[in-house]
Amino acid sequence: MKYLLKMSYLGCDYHGFQIQDNAKTIAGTLKKNCETLFNAPCTIQGCSRTDTGVHALVYFAACEVNGGNLVPCERIPYALNHLLPSDISVSDCFNVSDDFNPRHTEYKEYRYIVHNSPFKDPFLHKRAVRVPDKIDENLLDKEAKSFIGTHDFSSFMATGSPVNTTVRTIKYFNVERDGDKIIFSVAADGFLYNMVRIMVGTLLDISKGKIEVGKISEIIEKKDRKASGVTAPPDGLYLSKVIYKENF
Fold it and tell me: Nearest to residue 64, comparing CAs of 29, 99, 19, 17?
């Protein structure tokens, strides 16, 4: 039996989603509690890789159960939330076919939150990245539009990442202000390792005057990680939308 779990989580205390030896992860925690619920071995597969400290407003994970207790799908979120720690929540559950792969999405959206203030906010600790100097969100929104379309994003991928292709299609990239928060929202058919954090870091380097305005298209063409900006910290990054052909 395979279930698709709709989730959200705060990644502060986890070493990412993927199961790792000798490290606390979202998938490892989910697997442990699913096996308690079903009293059977479970295999967990996530819709996306999220790294240490990265959060998810929306996340989908497939849980394949090999035998054990039969639990009605509609009861699984309630049962798992009773077992899971308070920083992981399951809000819905769907029966899916055995060959369903949660990574096969139409597109995903990531959101990056910058706290643009000279003063610390303890309630945003590990939930946003503070930049004290004033950010011109309108300038960065205009600059972000250069990422839109189908490009080779080699310049925005962590070096040494094993991938079949570095070509991705970005649907939109918006930069908006909400009070003292600057919100970067980017959607694509897929993302390379650290791609969002490097794109945001590049935009922040433009804001700081470290990279010239109007250079993003040129950086894309160079296909060289050294041409782009810093990798922004993980704290401000959230997986915010996961869209499938199916209506989950």
Answer: 99
